[in-house]
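Worked example

This section walks through a single chain of length 148. The input is the sequence exactly as stored; nothing has been trimmed or padded.
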Amino acid sequence: MKPSYTFLTTLLGSLGVIPFATATYLNWQNETFLGWSGHELFSTYSAMILSFLSGALWGQLVHKQVSTFGKWLLLSTKLIALAAWLALLMHTTALAIALLLLGFMSIFWLEVRANTLIQPSHSHYFNMRFVITLVVCVLHLLMLYPHY
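Given that input, the structure is written out below as C-alpha cells.
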C-alpha cells in the first residue's frame, strides 16, 4: 500500500466502527434512533459491511489461483453473509448477529490466508484490520450478551 493511502485507510476503517459502537450504545440504553432500535441498526449496518468486505475480497481473488480450500472458504463466507441477511429478513436479530460475527471472523481469516496472493507487503493494513475486526467482534458479542 502506498504511504499516502495509509492514513486515509486507517481513518476510514476507524470511522467505520462508529456506527457499530453507536448502535451498541443505543441497544444497551434501550434507545432508538429515528424509530430504529439498536439491534436493527447494528445488524443492518453489520450485514452491509460484511457484504462489502466479502465482495471486495471476492473481487481481489476471483482472477487469482486459489486452492480448493480457498474456494470453499470464499463460498462459505458468501453463504454466511446470505444466511445473516435471511435471518435479518426473518426478524431473528440475535441469530443474524451471531452469523454476522462468524462472517467477520471468517472474512478476516480468509483475507490473512490469501495475503500472499493479494500483496504480501501490507503489514500495516493487516494490523489495522486485525484491531478493527477485533473491536467489531467484541461489539457483536456485546450485542448478543443481553440475550443470553
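What to look for: The longest strand covers residues 32-33.
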